[in-house]
Amino acid sequence: MIRHQMKTSAMQLSLFETRCTSDRFAVRVSERARRLTARVHIGGRVEIVVPRGVGPRVVRDFVHRFTPWIDRKVAAMAQFPTAVEELPAEVAFALTGERFAVQWQAAPRRRLMAREGQLLISAPDEAGARRLLRRWLRRAAAQRLAPKLMHLARDMKHQVAKVAIRCQRTRWGSCSSRGTVSLNCSLLFLRDEVVRYLFVHELTHLRHMNHSLKFWRAVEAQEPQFRLLDAELLAGWRTVPEWVFRE
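Given the sequence above, the corresponding structure tokens read:
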């Protein structure tokens, strides 16, 4: 993901074309955004997130400047499957080796019960069942990811103020200057070694809020195989079930 600090006049933006192609970028104005951001979603869809107060010309300049990066990300993300998946029969966590059989019953009352390797879901339709399943996934991620991150933070002698669990399409994790580490619940579908690398990456940002040479040397000191693991992390989106993102 590319970010860029910016200040200018306010206006709503529409779709526009890139430098010399017919590719269109979805432009979304966000009240919470503090900088221009380019996001490439699974399947190759590009979204430009724009803070309120940024004009079209500035956004176009930003896109033109980072078109090579966007093109590389589009090529990488376009290879991942986007086929529609119905409610899964099973949820399997590569991180822990756990497997949960999914049983859904059409009922007006919405409820999910987890017991002995089973997820029993009651919901009026499959869309409602998927929503319950995603909520459970976030809770499961908080229970499994946060303690592992905090344990590693103690080993690395880092202070983490807060761990946030999110369900995002484009980011495996992030770290704020205030000490909040955000983790994607989909990390549960990746190998333990890859997740540990992501933890090391984000925790290192607590001392180096950039990707400088010092940052990568600090990462390598904790994880000598970080280059291979980083490549596996990028390809990890193909292991995430489609229902995680489908509304």
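The domain at 90-244 is CATH 3.30.2010.10 (Zincin-like). Try to locate this feature in the token string yourself.
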